[in-house]
């Protein structure tokens, strides 16, 4: 359903048509008056069927031609234009179906994005509390809470949390599989992150080097994850603004949008830049994890970088130069997922200048004597990519935690239980006294478990 409302600019008395596609979410908007260029902003409240508007008044309009702005929380919208009263056009909903080439695909991808929005309202605070218990070593409370939670998720490989290794695995699984975050990351991308993350622990030859790297570089898992979770909360605040882009990305349809004509009218540029800048800094603060792993796995030395410089050279660099000076090679095993980082955009946001024309949705990022122009929908895409990279780094940290636990003698209880069961089954079989012991000790059975 599309609701048409007219508002009148308080400054110049220009009348503007707000053409709102009513869906599941409230619709925030920022409209630039085409006559006096002042900003009119507000929100369409779906449940109350009401609209709140600042710097303008709701009015009646019988004009034959008027300035029209399209609004939707779920779908791309056409950009502001002059429109005639009897001119017929597709609704954002119907137009969105055409972008996907399939009604079923469009509906499915849009509906999937709603999962995280619902989680933010009902489960984010509890999830954060569980992680806080983990970071603060409140084991007794945490183990009981998480044990109770995982009973409803049979794909988690154990039914009881008995130690910190178990807790780390359970919390990681719950975060990725019960929140809708995996939908934002995308199935294929998440699979790639998991595969790369598993490289960290698959080759036992690197365990000692990795442990030394963790210690020497003072990798603070709790600090990284605590700040990472703050970014998840910040992303949650802007999430509803990004729903059209996430759905289109996951449907491989974002490039089908004619960005000269269509965009995302509900996105708040200031809020998106805040998330982008803070997430960028967090990612750059943790590039050392990616760099150290590449150095170990490619050059067998955590201190030797691909550009001939050292790890300590990298630490001394400014964030801008860490990418510019070639420390991280996308061709190396841990570098590819960060290829979307845009340092010039980050510099413009953090240190120089950026501005948006809400009428055209064109953003100009000025970096010293150079500038970058991006449509708002493209900048939203960069924000989503940063969110994905956050989880890539967290995936690496998760696997580094596992190594740290192993080196400290903490094994997952579910694996230990399986080993005990396997040994019991092996003992029931008839094993020759001079045969190798099935426990893997290398001794004869009679001198080991057969005593």
Written description of the protein model:
Helix content is 50%, strand content 15%. The strands form four sheets. A five-stranded mixed sheet has the order 6-1-2-7-9, with no helix packed on it. Strands 3-4-5 form a three-stranded antiparallel sheet, with no helix packed on it. It has a three-stranded antiparallel sheet with strand order 11-12-13. The protein is built from 16 helices and 13 strands. It has helices at residues 92-100, 103-122, 124-135, 139-150, 164-177, 181-185, 187-202, 207-216, 221-250, 269-285, 287-299, 311-316, 319-324, 343-350, 376-407, 413-428, and strands at residues 2-9, 15-21, 27-32, 39-45, 50-54, 56-59, 65-71, 77-78, 81-84, 262-263, 353-357, 362-367, 370-375. With 451 residues, the protein is an alpha+beta fold. It is globular. It comes from [Ruminococcus] torques. Pfam families: SEC-C (PF02810).
